[in-house]
Structure formats: structure tokens, C-alpha cells
Amino acid sequence: DAKTTQPTSMDCAEGRAANLPCNHSTISGNEYVYWYRQIHSQGPQYIIHGLKNNETNEMASLIITEDRKSSTLILPHATLRDTAVYYCIVRGPYTGTASKLTFGTGTRLQVTL
Amino acid sequence: GAGVSQSPRYKVAKRGQDVALRCDPISGHVSLFWYQQALGQGPEFLTYFQNEAQLDKSGLPSDRFFAERPEGSVSTLKIQRTQQEDSAVYLCASSLGGLDLTEAFFGQGTRLTVV
Lengths: 113, 115
Hints:
The structure holds 2 protein chains of 2 kinds.
Chain A: E1 9-13, E2 18-23, E3 32-38, E4 45-50, E5 55-56, E6 61-64, E7 70-75, E8 84-91, E9 107-112
Parallel strand pairs in A: 1-9
Antiparallel strand pairs in A: 2-7, 3-4, 3-8, 5-6, 6-7, 8-9
Chain B: E1 5-7, E2 10-13, E3 19-24, E4 31-37, E5 44-50, E6 53-56, E7 65-68, E8 75-79, E9 88-95, E10 105-106, E11 110-114
Parallel strand pairs in B: 2-11
Antiparallel strand pairs in B: 1-3, 3-8, 4-5, 4-9, 5-6, 7-8, 9-10, 9-11
């Protein structure tokens, strides 16, 4: 799986959009970009994933650049409950053990009043 | 159940003690993963089950670590003769498996502290 690079930490004011970048310049054509987050003392939680098109769900939007070498997770209206570590993970369309997730150290997002 | 359940949530063990950590995955989920998360780090893969078969144990750090899933549902991670470096959060995740790229659902983890 391709390696990802994320900023160590970011701050965001409550109510504003949080834009979390991720670089994955070695991504292969069949690899997907996944985002998970981990709130303090909880297990990671799935947010969204995509291949090449932009994706949106009730939690967030995922914007993937045309060359697929980077992406941005957007939380449109951040709240204090969005304070967490956000992990960008590249994963191939594999089954079984090859579907395991390779986490980096993620981005620690702090949402403030 | 509604989600992945792990027990106990917290475990303090004396060095040299054996511990057993339990994971109840979501009913019907074929794939089950164990991860270890050290303080300030992302989770790291330990082992994988497909139903009752342990197909990958490449992430287990030593032969003191043993995992089982005898009936293809509940899984237990056992650590023998615990050492201080085993202190970490142990996370269990389950997924449907297959080719549909469905996401993995994680439990809240068991925080193991070896003193």
C-alpha cells in the first residue's frame, strides 16, 4: 500500500470548515483513499473513502486531485466533538489479510470555541 | 450486537502474568483483525482471521502472543508472561470481508498496563 503524509496537527474554529490534507504521491491506479478518525479513548471510526471522484456523505466530503497524488478531507461545520486524530490510509481492493489498514500517525485536529 | 465489543476495557497486569483479551465482532462479519496501539502512535496490525481460520499472524511481536477464534465469532488475544513493552491499547476490528471494500468497524479497545 502507498505511504501517506499528513500534517501532525491542525486547529479549527468551531463552525468553520476543517480541511485536512493528505499526500499519497505513490498511490497506484487501483488503490483507494480511506479516512478514519479516532476520538480520545475510542477505536478508529470510518469516515469516507474514494477512488478518483469526489465523495460526500453525512459526515464529510473527500476531494481527490485529478492526478490522485493528494486528497483533502472536509468537515463542513466543525464542532468540538470533531476533535480527534484523523488518519488518511491508502488501501487496495483486496480481500482477506491484504485488506488490513496501515495507519500512520495521522493529523490531530483540535476544534476550538 | 450493535457494534464490536471488547472486554475488559482496562487491564492492569503484573509483569510475568498471563492476560486474555476478548473481542465480540459484529454478527456475521467474516473478517476479524487485532491491532496494537502504543501511546501516541497509530494502530499496528497484529493478526487476521477469516471466520475461524487465522490466516495472517505476521504482526504478532513474539511467541508470547497468541490469538484464537474457534467458532468464527468471538476472538481472544492472549499474552503470556507479560512484559512492560506490552503496555498498549489492543483494538479489535471486524468487517464483512469480500470484495465490496466495506469499512472495518473497531471496538473501543482494551488498555493494557503492565506494572
